[in-house]
């Protein structure tokens, strides 16, 4: 491959194949940026193509379906058991890259034929890649906290704060913040990023419940985005079953937060230095309390959101209402989050039995 510059003699690249592959990766990244995909998504997909090339030792115009099968076997034979969704993600990333290269809108086919005698094609098919078998591919151990676990978790978070207050040690205010942070995630079914990115003006009144003041709604501005789209927004209504969390949120905003040094005056959750609380801190604090109580290590901060969905269903709220509250596109996703207790199922069964047997007695 030759590149001619004005006033400069033709230059022959030392490794034309590698140069072509690098240009392919650059073009692939550019096409994704044009679609508005997040930088992290772009980097991940480019890395997948790069790792596959390193595994095969060949370039896209030499790849075959057998290479995909060998690569999958290598992923499955490693010491760490990869999740179904992880391997499927590798396959999808590779499928998208090959789809980009074989798209007739670009000239990669003609360039490769001209310079290497072969052209790249699609090597990922339904018959040699992992399928999306269900909407939920997380670890089976992932579940909501039950009522006893929630009570123990929140009680321990409060105990830590009270202990620091009584001893006069540093860290009491952050501990009080963490306790209310977790309660707010549960009481409004928030994702971690949604909670961390809340500002004071995201707390809104609900005219239907005036005695809750400015804490009847939470306006989420950083909801989970669709690929190539900005963060989605939604408004979450406070529900009376979690009024205790609303009272705690009011105490945090009006009494405790003003005692923190607010560099970021908008953020709802502040650090001792006055900046917005970090995602990693939220995960670490949750894990610390969970492990202190000896709870199941599969429980994560996101389990509080699962608990919210489950408990709203058990309280009798309509599935459509719950779906809107948590911002799911499909009701099937909300159903995945739901893991109702045996007591709830038995209550539903008793109501069904009474209804059926009552109808039989009336007809007799």
Please describe the structure with a list of short key phrases separated by commas or semicolons.
single chain; 364 residues; DNA polymerase, domain 1; hpI Integrase, Chain A; 3 strands; disordered N terminus
How do the strands and helices of this protein lay out in sequence?
Layout: H1 16-34, H2 39-56, H3 65-76, H4 84-102, H5 108-116, H6 147-167, H7 172-188, H8 192-196, E1 203-204, E2 217-223, E3 232-237, H9 243-256, H10 279-293, H11 303-315, H12 319-326, H13 331-337, H14 342-363
Antiparallel strand pairs: 1-2, 2-3
Helix pairs in contact: 1-2, 2-4, 6-7, 7-9, 7-11, 12-13
Describe this structure in words.
- This protein has 14 helices and 3 strands.
- With 364 residues, it is mostly helical.
- It has 2 domains: 101 residues, DNA polymerase, domain 1 (Orthogonal Bundle), CATH 1.10.150; 201 residues, Intergrase catalytic core (hpI Integrase, Chain A, Orthogonal Bundle).
- Strands 1-2-3 form a 3-stranded antiparallel β-sheet.
- Strand 2 and strand 3 form a beta hairpin.
- Helix 6 runs antiparallel to helix 7.
- The longest helix has 22 residues.
- The chain is elongated, with a radius of gyration of 27 Å.
- The N terminus is likely disordered.
Short description:
The protein is mainly α and 364 residues long.
Query: Which percent bin holds the helix content?
Result: 40-55%
For the record, the count of structural domains works out to 2
Question: In angstroms, what is the radius of gyration?
Answer: 27 Å
> Which shape, going by the Cα principal axes?
elongated
CATH superfamily of the largest domain: Intergrase catalytic core
Strands side by side in the biggest sheet: 1-2-3
Biggest pleated sheet? 3 strands, antiparallel
Q: What is the count of β-strands?
A: 3
Number of helices: 14
CATH top level of the largest domain?
Mainly Alpha
Structural class: mainly alpha
Distance separating the two termini: 91 Å
Order of helices and strands: HHHHHHHHEEEHHHHHH
Strand content: under 5%
CATH topology of the largest domain: hpI Integrase, Chain A
On the 0 to 100 scale, the average pLDDT is 85
Name given to the CATH architecture of the largest domain: Orthogonal Bundle
Low-confidence stretches: 1-8, 133-138
């Amino acid at each position: 491959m030759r590149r001619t510059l004005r006033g400069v003699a033709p230059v022959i690249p030392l490794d034309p194949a590698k140069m072509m592959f690098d240009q392919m990766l650059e073009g692939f990244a550019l096409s994704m940026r044009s679609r508005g995909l997040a930088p992290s998504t772009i980097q991940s997909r480019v890395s997948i193509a790069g790792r596959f090339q390193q595994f095969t030792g060949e370039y896209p115009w030499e790849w075959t379906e057998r290479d995909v099968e060998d690569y999958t076997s290598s992923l499955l034979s490693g010491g760490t058991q990869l999740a179904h969704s992880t391997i499927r993600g590798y396959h999808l990333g590779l499928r998208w890259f090959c789809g980009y290269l074989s798209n007739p809108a670009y000239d990669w086919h003609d360039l490769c034929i001209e310079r290497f005698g072969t052209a790249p094609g699609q090597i990922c098919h339904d018959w040699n890649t992992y399928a999306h078998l269900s909407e939920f591919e997380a670890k089976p151990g992932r579940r909501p906290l039950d009522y006893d676990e929630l009570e123990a978790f929140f009680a321990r978070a409060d105990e830590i704060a009270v202990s620091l207050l009584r001893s006069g040690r540093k860290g009491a205010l952050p501990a009080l913040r963490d306790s209310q942070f977790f309660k707010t995630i549960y009481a409004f079914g928030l994702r971690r990023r949604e909670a961390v990115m809340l500002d004071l003006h995201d707390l809104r009144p609900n005219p239907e419940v005036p005695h809750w003041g400015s804490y009847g709604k939470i306006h989420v501005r950083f909801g989970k985005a669709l690929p190539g789209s900005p963060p989605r927004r939604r408004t979450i209504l406070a529900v009376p079953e979690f009024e205790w969390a609303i009272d705690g949120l009011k105490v945090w905003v009006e009494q405790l937060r003003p005692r923190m040094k607010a560099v970021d005056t908008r953020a709802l959750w502040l650090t001792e230095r006055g900046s917005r609380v970090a995602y990693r801190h939220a995960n670490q604090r949750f894990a610390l309390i969970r492990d202190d109580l000896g709870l199941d290590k599969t429980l994560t901060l996101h389990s509080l959101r699962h608990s919210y969905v489950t408990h709203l269903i058990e309280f009798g709220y309509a599935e459509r209402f719950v779906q809107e509250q948590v911002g799911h596109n499909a009701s099937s996703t909300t159903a995945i989050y739901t893991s109702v207790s045996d007591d709830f199922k038995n209550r539903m069964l008793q109501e069904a039995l009474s209804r059926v047997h009552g109808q039989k007695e009336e007809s007799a």
